[in-house]
Amino acid sequence: FSFSWQTTFQDGGEEVEEGAVYNVTLKKVQIQQAANKGARWLGGEGDQLPPEHTVRQYETSKIRAIKAGTLEKLVENLLTAFGDADFSYISIFLSTYRAFASTRAVLELLLDRFGSLETSSHGEMANLNSLESEIVLRAEIASVLRAWLDQCAEDFREPPDHTCLLKLLGYLKNNMPNSDMESKVQNLLKQFQNQEVETVDGLCSTSSSDLVDGEELEISNPEEFSSFQDHVVAEQLTYMDVMLFKKVVPYHCLGSIWSQRDKKENKNLAPTVRATITQFNAVTKCVVSTILGTKELKIQQRAKIIEKWIHIAHECRILKNFSSLRAIISALQSNSIYRLKTTWMCVSKDILLMYEELSEIFSDHDNYLTSRELLMKEATSKFANLDSSEKENQKKSQKRLQLQKNKGVMQGTVPYLGTFLTDLIMLDTALQDYVEGGLINFEKRRREFEVIAQIKLLQSSCNSYCLIPDQKFIQWFRRQRHLTEEESYKLSREVEAAADTNVLSPKSQKSMVKRISTLFLGTDVITPSKEQPPKSSPPGGSSGESTDSASVSSCEFNHSETEDVCVTPLSSPEDPLKKVQLGPGGPMSSCETLPGYDSDKGSIGSDKGSGSKCSIFDKSSGSDSGSSSGTGRTSKVLPVYNRQNGGSCIIRVSMDGINDSVYKSILITNQDRIPDVTQRALLKHNLEPEAVEDYELVQVISGDKELVFPRDANVFYGMNSHVNFDFILRKKA
């Protein structure tokens, strides 16, 4: 016989059980069957029968995917999901359950409640005897435990007692003695016991605390920095980024986890994410220090250092290291570096064009669509895809790529993690944790898993890197003393003032200003006649400004919280001090963390003119992850920042007088009034929600204009929707 088939899906609505709601999809398969023998006698060619001699059969199966449920039902579904054809459920649950339950709670339900049952919930098992049912149930539990240990072994790291791992080991000794899984758990326990507890400093190999005895922090020696070849620096930065990114525990990135890091009791929360942030900040500060650290440098020498960093950024692009690439670009666009107009004049045209192309990767247009598409395009490719519009750059790029191919060296991909943090923060803000009846909203977890799966895919790709640490460079990198924001700005002014007095005529200065302004901002602008030192950045987002020129500058910070760094964008010539900042995949107006890593302060699509939005919330993003079977169900458009949509939107609220630059994302609807929004904002900022009466809510319209809301106003209808959705919570006078 020969067969061919065609599959179609049909929405089957919902099924409601006690403690659970399921999405149902009907899978209809059309099977076309024909007898091979005698086909030619009936007029067929080869083994194909004419249509009139073909038998068509239809098979319809039901796919159930849990939409919401109690914790007990969600855990029970781990044992029945395969029978319901929800094949990705176990991976989704294991990747996201930490947002609503602890490892202990899930393990106790799985082993104590379901592990002691003598019958399974499968209907086809009803007629099996008790022994057969028990064997099947144990096999299902073993399958879940095996997946848990393979995918999320870090869940069981609980020093010093490792209670959950010991409980699991006891279950295996009683129910699966001498099994491979028992040996695996014993080995994992020994591994955890032999390892020191990993801290932020321990994870980040580039921390200044790693200096050997006798070493001191120092300002970079230009000659020593110049002695490192560009590709060596890029490879070593990539080596450090890869080691840290591979250690990132994906659930640490979940919005509900990462957004809680500011609480005092959570200072060690998400250490793997904090470590990548520390490294990102170290790179940006290293760039600034090497350029500004030595005042005695001539203009041409300083320009050569800028050129060298642009070449290093290009090498990072060839290595598909988007993390260090963005760190370098952000540093070069920082206020203290961007304002060195005289120095930038000495940068060659070809290298400026290369810099422009690299900067364009992180353009904020349409919620950083370019960098998102590029990241997904190259996630699993062997080599970078370099389509440079500048011929000379293209020749150099292709030559370097060909050299890699000749050596047979494959590259992984190191992403800019801030983009994923933003997406997860926005999903956490836009979707409710619980639905009607107090059931856990598992549709939200399916959406989050779409992002988590991308992180895991990229982590896997990093195994392709074959990089060897260069201890000479790593020690040099660790020794660098980072300039504070005030120091870098002061040095920048001194350097530029000295350059202005002995190099350029007013005409050439004007020409250079126009050239650099066009490069960064895309339009001709007027230079200011006077500058002032940096101040704290006012709220205001990115409306009207060139947000892809936002940047990281040095900021003094405590070593205990090394993930925090001031973010100061380059000054536009129209307003050298107006600070517009990049959030994790979007603009931000805080001076608290590097672009992308303070997700709670990030904004999605804050450019009013473009009406941009987060791609994971868009209808065009494809199928809804809620239908894990691939039914292609259309996603709902979710609330986003800076746009009212379907009776809801996301606003950002900062606390006046406490930390003006720290924003928290708040979901509001057209039913919310001032007390409701105020209470949620206080909770987000870890303050007592009972103090609602002591605060007033204010929307920032511009630098000198505010909109103060009356006590019982409807925020959704009362707000100004033509400016950024940035609010301040202020104590009443």
Automatic annotation (TrEMBL):
It comes from the Eukaryota. GO terms for cellular component: plasma membrane. This is RGL1 protein. SMART domains: RA, RasGEF, RasGEFN. Residues 229-498 form the Ras-GEF domain. Residues 647-733 form the Ras-associating domain. Residues 62-193 form the N-terminal Ras-GEF domain. It comes from Smithornis capensis. Residues 602-636 have a biased composition (Low complexity). GO terms for biological process: Ras protein signal transduction. Keywords: Guanine-nucleotide releasing factor. Residues 547-557 have a biased composition (Polar residues). Coiled coil: none annotated. Gene3D superfamilies: Phosphatidylinositol 3-kinase Catalytic Subunit, Chain A, domain 1 (3.10.20.90), Ras guanine-nucleotide exchange factors catalytic domain (1.10.840.10), Son of sevenless (SoS) protein Chain: S domain 1 (1.20.870.10). Residues 525-639 are annotated as: Disordered. One of its GO terms (molecular function) is guanyl-nucleotide exchange factor activity. PANTHER family: GUANINE NUCLEOTIDE EXCHANGE FACTOR, RAL GUANINE NUCLEOTIDE DISSOCIATION STIMULATOR-LIKE 1.
